[in-house]
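Still learning folds. Look over my entry:

…
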Amino acid sequence: MTQRTSHAPGLSSSLPFILCGFLLATGTGPLTGQEAESPPPVEWSFESEVGASVFFGASDQTTVATKLASARRGPRYETEADFSFLYGEAQGEGGDSFVNKRSWEVGSTLNYRGFSWLNPYAFGRVLSSLEKRIDVRYNGGAGAKATVLDSEATRLDFALAVLAEKTVEDAPGNGEDELLARWTGSFRFRRSFSQERVLFETQTEYNPVFDQFDNFTVKSESSLAFRLSEVISLKLSLLDNYDSRAEDRGARSNNDGRVLFSVLASF
């Protein structure tokens, strides 16, 4: 006598429907036509900027600045790279001109954009500054960036990171090396108006030493750009750099600010 195993009636035929219902309930069901589309294409952008400020009368001063920048934005990663150079001359009491500003800076940032609004990022920079008496300064670090707003017209993000910094001083007879660890906190805001014909940007970065909060640097930049064509814009910028140890290295002031009028080409 052959023994047969009984099955629950209709279970085999109902299994596909139960599985589909479970997948839909958990949000892992089959992709819709929109979700199944290929990831957005990689976007590249390039900027070239040349600016100047001229003061004459009791104290003649001329400053020329140039900046090159590129950005690559993909489905998961966003990279930025930039190079800037500043040169300035002033007239002394005897009427002779001398170089009072000469600095350059190159840097790169890598942002990961795979975790909603909070993502890791890494960066590195190298700079030199005559006015701050820095022969060369290297820094690099990593942290997290929170993107609060990200739309066609508005972007706002905050970042917190740690960095290692090495400075070679440019003080006469005192070219000492200084190695520090710093916190770095920053925010950046971008807003366009009138169908992107006017663009306002501002960013500030604060970098205190780990255990010496009276030893810090602050970098701030705000700008307003007016687009004249698809490529060319007129730009007004206010830049301010503060280094609490600049005077100790022989600089005239810890603070260095400037206003620049520039022509900006964007591609």
